Amino acid sequence: MNEDVYMLGIETSCDETAAAVVKNGREALSNVVASQMESHRRFGGVVPEIASRHHVEQITLVIEEAMQQAGVSFADLDAVAVTAGPGLVGALLVGVNAAKALAFAHGLPLIGVHHIAGHIYANQLVTEMKFPLLALVVSGGHTELVFMKEHGNFVVIGETRDDAAGEAYDKVARALGLPYPGGPHIDRLAHEGEPVMDLPRAWLEEGSYDFSFSGLKSAVLNALHNAKQRGEEIDPRQMAASFQASVIDVLVTKTAQAAKEYGVRQVLLAGGVAANRGLRAALQEKMKELPDVELVIPPLSLCTDNAAMIAVAGTVLYQQGKRADLALNANPSLPLV
């Protein structure tokens, strides 16, 4: 690469308003995130209308802060990358329209990025990506195993058939009376308890890398309901530990199997649930069985939604000559491939 590439990334797919400037797809010069967690907590989940309103209020401030922290001007930028989908349509539209306005005003190329591609490419801020590789993407709305032969080439070899892992975490947390978002609270409780309860693991049919967590979630809800009917108390720490053990067992086992079958050089962990301590530890332990495969786990700041990951994925697309035009629209169900 002869000349440096400076990319502004914008991310508003759910409840974080984020902007970042990344140099050469490898170095985050800034990564600003305005979280809305407090606004949504009392509703027990993200309220789309409230999310959109917060994005409108925050987007300009967040972009200005990202540019200032990076010490660059719009004249220094090579392009603007923005999450075009999937996500909440109203939330996505705020980011997409902000990016289009900036691209038009400053004569910059516009690049639409897939949100999950962003999560995978967050790992490039940690180390160089080595192909072929396998990415385990685990978030509130997605649970996928993605095989990559080269940059920008995504093959989804396994996905959730019902609830995503993060969604199951939030529903079980709510049943246990834990605050939103439930994932970190379940993870914390799980470390205080023991997985003594016999909960199901959905392996599905032979050779499938798909996931299913709705049966596990139902089993937890039924166990809690039946105990309440009998006037018994279930220790939330034991339930959290048992639930987490079931989720992690399936995720880690299928990832290791796929890594072996596809002969990958690297396994990347990506998405919000990648911040889970139990999952990180179990994956590190399991991957010792495959010493020739490098495991890459991003820092917590790059697991949850952020714009640096969008800028990295945007840089790859930019270098491949891919551009969007000003007709770019938000697509809440944008396919990865």
UniProtKB/TrEMBL annotation:
Its EC number is 2.3.1.234. Keywords: Acyltransferase, Cytoplasm, Iron, Metal-binding, Transferase, tRNA processing. GO terms for molecular function: iron ion binding; tRNA N(6)-L-threonylcarbamoyladenine synthase activity. Binds 1 Fe(2+) ion per subunit. This is tRNA N6-adenosine threonylcarbamoyltransferase. It is found in: Cytoplasm. Gene3D superfamilies: 3.30.420.40. NCBIfam families: gcp_kae1 (TIGR00329), T6A_TsaD_YgjD (TIGR03723). Its cofactor is Fe(2+). It catalyses: L-threonylcarbamoyladenylate + adenosine(37) in tRNA = N(6)-L-threonylcarbamoyladenosine(37) in tRNA + AMP + H(+). Substrate binds at residues 137-141, 170, 183, 187, 276. One of its GO terms (biological process) is tRNA threonylcarbamoyladenosine modification. Belongs to the KAE1 / TsaD family.
